[in-house]
Specification:
Two copies of one chain form a homodimer. The first copy, chain A, is built from 13 helices and twelve strands. By secondary structure, chain A is an alpha/beta fold. The first copy, chain A, has three domains: 43 residues, 434 Repressor (Amino-terminal Domain) (Orthogonal Bundle); 136 residues, Rossmann fold, CATH 3.40.50.2300; 131 residues, 3-Layer(aba) Sandwich (Rossmann fold), CATH 3.40.50. In chain A, strands 2-1-3-4-5-11 form a six-stranded parallel sheet, with helices on both faces. In chain A, strand 6, helix 9 and strand 7 form a beta-alpha-beta unit. The structure holds a DNA duplex (16 and 16 nucleotides). Chains A, B: Keywords: DNA-binding, Transcription, Transcription regulation. Chains A, B: GO terms for molecular function: DNA-binding transcription factor activity; transcription cis-regulatory region binding. Chains A, B: InterPro entries: HTH_LacI, LacI/GalR-like_sensor, Lambda_DNA-bd_dom_sf, Peripla_BP_I.
Chain lengths: 344, 344
DNA sequence: TTGAAAGCGTTACCAA
DNA sequence: TTGGTAACGCTTTCAA
């Protein structure tokens, strides 16, 4: 069994209160007593129980981090950034993959509450506005990152998805594309919707349009679905000369679709991704994509959350950071009068 | 404040013992009382505190998962597989990135103990054999995955790294390569060492050799260092015609090095990775790599650990699964009498 | 400067 | 069947 403060107290011939004080650097304990207690703690390999401390009102030093899928490099990178941000403060992360499913989200949310995490960082979309109510009403410090829920009064740090989509569209427009399609995540993912809105807005401003049948929504298997949806797009009568994908995984799928159909990228088809994950840099050809300032975003949520933990009062700020287009080699000017690549 | 069993008991006009029993489905409670209690729990939105329960000897339903870096797709994929494996059982994962640093490992190990996790899964190398002693001696169920520590009596599930390295070497040999080099992780990473041993063994068996100066060890920035080390290799007098990289990230770096030096892959240089992460499939050209059976591995550790949790006694089995070479397009026969590609 | 004792939210044992 | 109550390991008054 693990040693407790009782063991330490007995061994050191003092009361448990003394041990507790030494542990927390509080109260006044004489030098010698303090040293003696430290000695015994080391000797017994005493590890104070965070559990027991938490029960008395102290923190658990554990944060919940909810993402759609930790194996998606974008979220893995976010997780790492958040981890690095809080590790020095003694916090650990409980990472939960929701698959964008409300039931999984709910399950994890109650689990995290029952496990008394100090705060929750949510990087996954939320459909049901009421989902967070239980958390918030109990005063759980909560913040959203990279995703947001409208009409929810909760601290939020996001990239400007609309602007990101618009930047992608402008890039494509500048290259001369006029026939642009979109592959998005399931239509419930708001950030995807915002990105599409950005694209559409920009196209309309340029006198073009983005008809609904040129927007395809994928399921959960991002790469595979991205490929499948891109195929649909590329095999129709009036195939687009450029596809904007709402994340890098989908873009990778589109890349594969093009390869399978012997459509050259970027000569015959331009593809733009989103997130600027490592995949974008590694893909063939390297993917033009929209980068979110993930490091700043992570740093910011953690700061906001820590404030909230300290002041006990919700901060509820909404911070929007600007994304940036990273041009690589998956985009170029369309070939002259290129109306499509039917591959019967 | 959150509702407690006291609140529920008072509201339902029963004792806390009754509430506790209902909560755990134990003891004998009359139907009506039980239903009434359930009603009150729902009404109060009562969430039992795992913390408090843990203090009385029950489990925390939390597992620690230690990996070198959660943003490395290989480990992110492992994390996801483990998560899926345990989620149904009510467990959450505390994920910790060690960067292969012993001090970070140690820090996290004591943190996890203090937070009373039920078990620890270690997917990161351990240099100091004594590092796990405190854990093990306190009876913490522990298992290693994808990494191992020799002379440590602890449950282990690994891929046969030696065989993996050998498979890579045989593949290269079969293609006709005779001048093969290696880029490895820092020399402290045992699995890397085993893979190299496999390569060397196979080369020697074929009448060739793997001189030490053809084995380069990277630092922590895997891709960048992989690139840098590959450059060193490629720019020397007798550049190799093939490079085996101890993981996909390093291989990606090697790919970049080749690109920078205008060396064509696979025509002028073959590259083999390890892990078969998503990066390998996405790279340009797609990477020939050695796949570990990660899903089976994860499933197995979890089963072993759950046994250990149930029977209270360490299982300490060592399970070795066979890896498999996945041939893609980063390897081919060397060009005839190709002795090197000086790029002075 | 030190110690005794009252919680914190559960569980589990023992009476009733 | 039920309820009272002593743990569990720690923090935090409050006295001494």
């Amino acid at each position: 069994m693990r040693a407790t403060i009782y063991d330490v107290a007995r061994e050191a011939g003092v009361s448990i209160a003394a041990v507790s004080q030494v542990l927390n650097g509080k109260g006044k304990i004489s030098e010698e007593r303090r040293n003696e207690i430290f000695r015994v703690m080391a000797k017994l390999n005493f590890q104070p129980s965070v559990i027991a401390a938490a029960l008395t009102g102290k923190k658990t030093y554990t944060l919940g981090l909810l993402v759609p899928d930790i194996s998606n490099p974008f979220f893995a990178e976010i997780a790492r950034a958040v981890e690095d941000q809080v590790h020095g403060l003694g916090y650990s992360l409980m990472i939960c993959s929701t698959d964008n499913k409300d039931d999984r989200l709910e399950r994890y949310l109650t689990l995290l509450q029952q496990k008394s995490v100090d705060a929750v960082i949510i990087g996954t979309g939320i459909q049901d506005t009421q989902m967070l109510a239980p958390l918030l009403s109990k005063g759980m410090p909560t913040a959203m990152i990279a995703r947001e829920t409208p009409n929810m009064d909760v601290t939020t740090v996001v990239a400007n998805d609309f602007a990101g989509g618009a930047a992608a569209a402008r890039h494509l427009l500048a290259l001369g594309h006029t026939h642009i399609a979109v592959v998005a995540e399931r239509s419930r993912v708001r950030s995807s919707l915002e990105r599409i809105r950005g694209v559409r807005h920009t196209l309309v401003e340029a006198g073009l349009s983005l008809p609904d049948d040129l927007v395809k929504y994928s399921g959960d298997a991002l790469i595979k679905d991205g490929k499948y949806k891109a195929m649909e797009l590329l095999q129709c009568e009036e195939a687009p000369t450029a596809i904007f994908c709402c994340n890098d995984l989908l873009a990778i799928g589109a890349l594969q679709a093009a390869k399978d159909l012997s459509i050259r990228v970027p000569e015959d088809l331009s593809i733009v991704g989103f997130d600027n994950t490592i995949l974008a840099a590694v893909a063939d050809p390297p993917l033009t994509t929209v980068a979110q300032p993930t490091d700043v975003m992570c740093k910011t949520v953690v700061e906001l959350l820590m404030q909230q933990l300290k002041h006990q009062s919700p901060v509820n700020r909404r911070i929007v950071l600007e994304p940036e287009l990273v041009a690589r080699q998956s985009t170029s000017a369309p070939r002259a009068s290129n109306t499509g690549h039917q591959t019967t």
